[in-house]
Specification:
This protein has three helices and four strands, in the order H-H-H-E-E-E-E. It is α+β, with helices and mostly antiparallel strands. The protein has two domains: 88 residues, no CATH class; 67 residues, Nuclear Transport Factor 2, Chain: A (Roll), CATH 3.10.450.40.
Length: 169
């Protein structure tokens, strides 16, 4: 006998999104995760690095289990822990504030716009990348603006004419 469930031919099998991914029925405001969460694993990495270093210093000559691998683990975990802590920026500007800053930078009334979080530099500073189009239909101008998510400063912006496209082909 088979352990498979009995499925009639007329039953519909459908894929269903999990509740937390179903944007259609999602009514609450979405809060983008803050990069400062990186600090918690950073502290954990540094704690384990200190433990490895202490074990290596105390037991390296007395134990067959403690060898130079503990020192290398302490160094690697220390570097990763320091990076995690120093790149754990607290985001003070959300995507709505970035859209407002972008509108001020491009110099035209914005119609459609979208914001995406990206990271800049070696320490992964959070930045909003905002793509915006002018309010005319069809839009005549478009702009790309980078807004720092930590202090709200416009880092860069590019504004250009939007090429007219013929969609009636």
């Amino acid at each position: 006998m088979s352990d498979a469930p009995n499925i009639r031919a007329d039953d519909d099998l459908r894929d269903v999104l999990p509740d937390d991914l179903n944007a259609v029925e999602h009514t609450l405001n979405y809060e983008f995760p803050d990069n400062s969460r990186r600090r918690k694993p950073g502290i954990l990495y540094l704690t384990v690095a200190v433990l490895c270093l202490v074990l290596w210093l105390v037991k390296r000559n007395d134990s067959a289990m403690v060898n130079s691998g503990f020192l290398w683990a302490a160094i690697l975990l220390g570097v990763v822990g320091l990076f995690s802590i120093t790149s754990g920026w607290r985001m003070k500007f959300d995507e709505q504030q970035a859209l407002v800053a972008a509108q001020g930078a491009v110099g035209f009334a914005v119609g459609h716009a979208s914001a995406q979080q990206v990271w800049r530099g070696l320490r992964s500073r959070p930045t909003w990348r905002v793509l915006c189009y002018s309010a005319e239909e069809p839009p005549r101008r478009r702009g790309l603006v980078l807004v720092d998510a930590v202090n709200g400063r416009v880092v860069e912006h590019l504004v250009q004419d939007n090429p007219l496209e013929d969609w009636d082909v």
